[in-house]
Design goal:
Blueprint (H helix, E strand, L loop, with lengths): L5 H11 L11 H9 L8 H26 L2 H13 L1 H6 L7 H23 L6 H17 L4 H14 L7 H23 L3 H10 L8 H14 L2 H14 L7 H22 L10 H19 L3 H31 L24 H18 L8 E3 L2 H15 L3 E3 L3 H4 L2 H4 L12 E6 L6 H4 L4 E14 L2 E14 L9
Parallel strand pairs: 1-2
Antiparallel strand pairs: 3-5, 4-5
Helix pairs in contact: 1-2, 1-17, 2-3, 3-4, 3-6, 4-14, 4-15, 6-7, 6-13, 7-9, 8-13, 11-13, 12-14, 12-15, 13-14, 16-17
Length: 496
Amino acid sequence: MLELGNDEVYYYTYALHLQSNYFDHPPGVAWLIRFFSLNLTFTHEAFIRLGSVVFAAIGTLLSFHIGSFVRNARTGWYAALLYNTSIYSCVIAGTFILPDSPQVVCWLAGLYYSVILVQRTAEGKSISPWTWVMIGVLNGLCIMCKVHGVFLWGGLGLYILLYQRKLLSSPWLYVSALITAAIISPILIWNIQNQFVTWNYHSNRVEVNTFSLDTDSFLQTIFGQLFYNNPLNVIAITIAVIYAGRRVLVQKATQRILLLCGLPIIIMTTGVSLFRSVLPHWSGPGFLSLHFLAAAYFDYTAAGSSKRAGKTHWLLKTATVLITVVMVGGIGLIRLYPGTIGSKDKESYGETDFTLDLYGWRQFGAVYANWYRQREQEGVLQAGTKIVCNKWFPAAHEEYYLARKTNSPVIGLGDINDLHHYAWLNRLRPSLQKGENALCIVPSNYPDNPATTYGKWFASAELLQTFAQTRGGKPCRYFKVYLLKGYKEAVASPVH
């Protein structure tokens, strides 16, 4: 029902050429797309996203099993409901194809074995080497999906240092850590080969260079976390965490590991937002960890008075209604809203309208392909004329919805911090030759002046066609297709 968004089409480009690491993230999402599209045999949006949907089902099962293990089956049922009423785990990671899609499953699986470890240790039981091995493997795979997975080791490490220092004498702790190190070593090797470009990029996103408070960023992060994790779920988590300070909802050791795996990433995301812009969904795995305390609290109240149980059921039902409204309302807004909720200025028509990232590219792709073939027959364009773009978006949309239909390579021209993975894709594609012409497609919601942007590479820019796009019977966006003439020089090395 929805086209691929900016991030999703970009991660599709990961899957075109598998690497041990990418500019922005480790390769987990690329593996997921490759596997569920049967090695890109099927490239419809449904297959590109299929991995996230299947992994959401696995995440639901894991939530049930973890909840059942820490308290009882009803707790597992509540945990599964919380997983599916969270916008982060159900929609962002469970419908859209993002690095979070495989990450949340590896996070939950790694958390499960950490819970087993601390419970058995607290009960004075022996720890199977298999438990340590699985912690090492799953935590490593989690990091290979997204570097946030290091917080799993951070939580377990804090638990050992604060409550079970005798585990420091276990050789299996170090074997487990070495397994994780071996699994994630391709990230390090790739970054050594590429001047630590991923390290530099992400450190610039979270490094606090000035202690000037950014109130807007902080408020956006607070409300973003509330929305993404479902305000009703966050209320339940908050109540459970406070209540857990007075009464043991699950075994004390389990309660501690859940808090230590959940709270640090939430605190870090919120803390950094005080000084610079962050993405609220970064803290999503932390809220997933705390779901189990909320589920245990729900079970505790359900076992009590009918009045208390009624409040619990009201909270869960309301959370279910809320996510249903968000999903149905969001799809309706994207597909049916007449015109645009963004700018009405023709040169930047639709700018700031986030719904256009998920609407209209499929429609424009069909129109563009017909227009391209006609221009090819007329001799205006040559077969396979390259498309150039100076940023990874909208380059990735042009890659998926336009270039595939016309067999046109997409080439990135510009700074590596704007091109991201396109700096590496350039190496795998035929380079622009001196005097060669290329196409540039400018959607009005990402306005640009090709003569200025590409002036140092091309002699001139000629507007060939303007396409008007409508939604609900009203204009929502314009696409301008330019012919860039006379390429001047070879593309510089993408890494600098």
